[in-house]
C-alpha cells in the first residue's frame, strides 16, 4: 500500500459504513457483530482492505469490471484533464471524448455504426428494449413487440431488465414484471438432460438448442416477436458458452422471422473473452450490442447501446412527425469522464496486447482447472471463454446433482482465507448456485493464474476432502 490509515481514521470509516452504507448483494445482519470489508487501495491485480490485508482479485472488482487492473495513472489523468475542461453537458449535444470514443469503438465493431451513451448495463439494455417497442409501433402497429430472453441469462436489475431476466431466484419477490417478455430455453450442454436433448452433443446439440428458440417463436407467433436478447457467454447464470452450431442457427432464425438480435456484452465486452466483443467469436451480426463494465474498467461510469445504421435510420425517416425520433434521455450519458476513461482504457488494451494475453492466460487457467477436475471429483464441469471461466461443483458426476450452495460458498471462503478473491453464482438459479466464477484482469500473469488455481485446489481439499 502506498498510504496508510491511522486507527482513528479506520474506526471512523468503519463506523460510518456500518451506520449508513447499504451494500450490494449481501445480508447485513452479520455486521451487527462484525465489520464489513472495506477496500482502501488497489494496484495491478491486488487490493488491500482496512486491516492492510492483501488480496489477489480474481473477479476484477467483484463483478467482472476492472479489465486493465487498478492504479492506471494514464486513465486517471485522462479523466482529470477532461473534467477540468468540461465535466458534463446533456447528450442532446455532443462532446469531444464522446465523439472520439464512439469513432474508436465503431472501428472495433464492423457492421455497427451508432453509439447511444448511458450509465449502466441495465439502462443500456432498456434503451434497446425501448427501441424495439418503438419500432413495433412504427412498423407493425405495435404487434411485433415481444422480446425473447434466455433461461439463466441476466440483463440487469431494473424492473424492465428483470422482466427479461432468466434467473428466477434473482427475480423472486420483485414482480409483477412488464408484459411482453418471453423466455426461451438455455443452451447449456452440461445440463442438456433438462432440455430433453441428452441424446445429442456438440454441434448437433447446439443446433437443436437454437431450434428450441424457433419453437417458442412459432408458439408466440412470429408476427408478435420483435427481438431476441442473449448474452454471448451467460455470466451469473453459470458461465455458459453455447456449443458449436448454436449461434449460426440463431442468426438464421432471426433473419427468417425478421427478429432483431440484441447481444448483451455488459460482461463480455472490451476484451473479457479474448476478442473485443464476445459475439465476434461466432461470426454473427447483431442489431443491438450493449456494454458497460469493462468499457472504462471501472475508472468512470459509462455504458453504451450500439446499433446499426439501419436501426438508426428508422428513427428519422419522417422528420415532420414530432414523435418520430428516440424520445429518451440518460442524464449521466452526458458525463465526459466515461468516454475519456474509455479511450484511455482501450489504448492500454491495444498497446499492451491484452487481447492476446487474455487468450493465452485463459488457456492456462482452463488447463489448470481441468487438472483440478481430474483431481477433485466434486468438479463436474469446467467451461468459459478467455479470462471468463467457471467450475461447476456437483455431489455426483453421474447424476450431476449440485452441491449445497453453502458448500460452494465455503470454497470461496477458504480461497479467501488464502488471500484470493473468487466468485460463485449468487441467488441466481434456485438450487443451482454451485458454479465457482473466475474473471481475473486481462493483465494476469502465469504466476497470478497459478496462484488462483492453487488456492482453489487447497480450498476444495479442505471443504470436500
TrEMBL record:
UniProt GO MF annotations: pyridoxal phosphate binding; transaminase activity
Gene3D superfamilies: Aspartate Aminotransferase, domain 1, Type I PLP-dependent aspartate aminotransferase-like (Major domain)
Keyword Transferase on entry: yes
Cofactor(s) the protein needs: pyridoxal 5'-phosphate
Keywords in alphabetical order: Aminotransferase, Pyridoxal phosphate, Pyruvate, Transferase
PANTHER family: AMINOTRANSFERASE, AMINOTRANSFERASE CLASS-III
Family: Belongs to the class-III pyridoxal-phosphate-dependent aminotransferase family.
Name used for this protein in its record: Taurine--pyruvate aminotransferase
Amino acid at each position: 500500500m502506498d498510504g496508510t490509515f491511522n486507527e482513528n481514521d479506520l474506526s471512523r470509516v468503519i463506523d460510518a459504513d456500518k451506520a449508513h452504507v447499504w451494500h450490494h448483494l449481501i445480508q447485513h445482519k452479520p455486521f451487527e457483530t462484525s465489520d464489513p470489508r472495506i477496500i482502501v487501495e488497489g494496484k495491478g491485480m491486488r487490493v488491500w482492505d482496512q486491516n492492510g490485508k492483501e488480496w489477489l482479485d480474481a473477479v476484477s472488482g467483484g463483478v467482472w469490471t476492472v479489465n486493465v487492473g487498478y492504479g492506471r495513472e494514464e486513465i486517471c489523468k485522462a479523466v482529470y484533464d477532461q473534467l477540468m475542461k468540461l465535466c458534463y453537458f446533456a447528450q442532446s449535444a455532443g462532446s469531444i471524448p464522446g465523439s472520439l470514443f464512439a469513432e474508436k469503438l465503431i472501428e472495433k465493431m464492423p457492421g455497427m455504426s451508432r453509439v447511444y451513451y448511458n450509465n449502466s448495463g441495465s439502462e443500456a439494455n432498456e434503451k434497446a428494449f425501448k427501441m424495439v417497442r418503438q419500432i413495433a409501433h412504427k412498423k407493425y402497429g405495435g404487434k411485433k413487440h415481444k422480446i425473447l430472453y434466455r433461461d439463466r441469462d441476466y440483463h440487469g436489475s431494473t424492473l424492465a431488465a428483470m422482466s427479461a431476466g432468466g434467473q428466477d431466484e434473482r427475480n423472486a419477490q420483485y414482480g409483477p414484471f412488464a408484459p411482453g417478455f418471453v423466455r426461451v430455453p438455455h443452451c447449456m450442454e452440461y445440463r442438456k438432460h433438462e432440455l430433453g436433448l441428452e441424446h445429442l452433443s456438440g454441434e448437433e446439440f447446439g443446433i437443436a438448442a437454437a431450434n428450441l428458440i424457433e419453437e417458442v417463436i412459432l408458439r408466440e407467433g412470429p408476427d408478435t416477436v420483435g427481438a431476441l436478447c442473449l448474452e454471448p457467454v451467460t455470466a451469473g447464470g453459470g458461465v455458459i458458452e453455447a456449443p458449436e452450431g448454436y449461434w449460426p442457427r440463431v442468426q438464421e432464425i432471426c433473419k427468417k422471422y425478421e427478429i432483431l438480435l440484441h447481444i448483451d456484452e455488459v460482461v463480455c465486452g472490451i476484451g473479457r473473452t479474448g476478442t473485443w466483443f464476445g459475439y465476434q467469436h461466432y461470426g454473427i451480426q447483431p442489431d443491438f450490442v450493449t456494454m458497460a463494465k469493462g468499457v472504462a474498467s471501472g475508472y468512470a461510469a459509462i455504458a453504451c447501446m450500439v446499433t446499426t445504421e439501419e436501426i438508426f435510420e428508422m428513427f428519422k425517416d419522417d422528420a415532420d412527425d414530432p414523435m418520430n425520433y428516440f424520445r429518451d434521455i440518460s442524464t449521466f450519458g452526458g458525463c465526459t469522464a466515461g468516454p475519456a476513461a474509455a479511450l484511455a482504457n482501450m489504448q492500454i488494451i491495444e498497446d499492451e496486447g491484452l487481447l492476446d494475453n487474455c487468450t493465452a492466460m485463459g488457456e492456462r487457467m482452463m488447463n489448470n482447472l481441468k487438472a483440478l477436475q481430474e483431481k477433485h471429483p466434486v468438479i463436474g464441469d469446467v467451461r468459459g471463454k478467455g479470462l471468463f471461466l467457471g467450475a461447476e461443483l456437483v455431489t455426483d458426476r453421474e447424476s450431476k446433482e449440485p452441491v449445497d450452495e453453502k458448500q460452494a460458498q465455503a470454497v470461496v471462503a477458504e480461497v479467501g482465507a488464502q488471500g484470493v478473491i473468487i466468485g460463485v453464482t449468487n441467488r441466481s438459479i434456485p438450487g443451482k448456485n454451485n458454479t465457482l466464477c473466475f474473471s481475473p484482469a486481462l493483465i494476469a500473469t502465469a504466476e497470478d493464474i497459478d496462484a488462483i488455481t492453487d488456492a482453489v485446489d487447497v480450498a476444495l481439499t479442505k471443504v470436500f476432502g
